[in-house]
């Protein structure tokens, strides 16, 4: 048996040295390396020379292999979800693992897109590994790491709202791990850009509506409300926006590019068209080329007209 950082080990108390603590060694070796169990890491226990103690091994802030009686949230080779405590732009994310030492997720693991980097309080799915010197490090869990641990989402999830954690980001959307409750790690999911109400971060916890349960057990989610509810809310937003514009007009219409609509209103082009279509049907706006304008009715009417309250003209 060898002393390896990131692992649990059963070691024998060889000697006690005040004011430091207990020096432990391998119980089946007459001679060999020793590791210090500081008094502050004993959880208040006292030990006699010759007894065996189960400890977790890690490197302290001076690079020395050290023992603790505290049980970590993660051990070497395991995958888990850890909360980010702090961030250093040069080193990376420092993650809480339940002991006095934090686990480093190197900045190179985060990629070049700073907009998706996590913030303190986010929870990241990582695997504990070693660096070249045998010290504990974390790496982000990938889909192939999660796949053996997740379950197939049941068809009953369709239309339900679920919590999920962002595990990776791509040009067209985000991979997430969907909360599984008592079923452990949960199910794999995906939020396309059109279903994200805003840009997301790796490790961020979000809530979304299951729009599809695929045959392979993965799910597609949307953070946006169902179309009918969303259409009402979007119509209200656009109407309020127009009423604040000079002349009640805006240089956006069905002809506007999707990326422009997304950037300006944080809604998809299809959602924009549904909302404008509702307002046009109710006689509140008109479109002329690339412009959308309030009608006299839209200028005079209150907010109830867009939401349909007190108006018999419902779809």
UniProtKB/TrEMBL annotation:
One Pfam family in the UniProt entry: S1_2
Organism: Cohnella lubricantis
PROSITE patterns the record matches: S1
GO molecular function ontology, one term from the record: nucleic acid binding
Matches recorded under InterPro entries: CvfB_fam, CvfB_S1_2nd, CvfB_S1_st, CvfB_WH, NA-bd_OB-fold, S1_domain, WH-like_DNA-bd_sf
Name this polypeptide is given: RNA-binding protein
Domain S1 motif: 159-224
UniProt region (Disordered), positions on chain: 287-315
Source domain of life: Bacteria
Sequence ranges of Low complexity compositional bias: 295-309
Family recorded in the similarity comment: Belongs to the CvfB family.
